[in-house]
Structures are given as structure tokens and as C-alpha cells.
Amino acid sequence: MTAYIWATVKSGEPEQFLAYARAAAQVAAGFGGEYIVRGLIEEVFEGDCEDAGRAVLIRFPDAEAARAYMHSDGYKAAKALREGAGGSVNSRLVVAS
Question: Considering only CA atoms, which of 57, 72, 94 is closest in space to residue 23?
Fold first, then answer.
């Protein structure tokens, strides 16, 4: 079943976050990941959105591919690019039913 990683992002230092985003996208592609949404959160209709500014949705062929991406050495290296930049990323795995 198709799976998605849904993330909300509060970016910090722009150059570091851009380097992270580029590296993460390359790694995701290697696991069959395709970016569906990348954009600003314009309005929160319900709940709290952790004061995030952006939303990202990546589609994967299945949950195993999404998990493999998140636990890969490539993603860990990409994540290290944003460390110390401030901000935050909250990621969730969503499986289509």
C-alpha cells in the first residue's frame, strides 16, 4: 500500500535548511519517494500546528520504503546538515487505506 511521510517544518537558518532539503530529496528518490507537496502552511483550521511554517508530503511505494528512507544513512547525513540551524521538523508515517 502507498505510504506517505507528512512533515511540518519550522525552518531555522535558511541556507542550512535548503542544503538539508536538497539532500533529503535526493535520498528519498532512491527509495521511490516522490514529493507531492512542499509549501507554506497558510491557515490552520483545527488543532495546533507546532508553530510550523511549511508542510511537506512525500509519497512512497509502501511503508517499508518510507521507513527505510527515514532510517537510512543517507537521510541521517542529510539531517546532520540542518543540525544547529534552529527550527524543527515533525514527521509522521501515513499509510493509505
Answer: 72
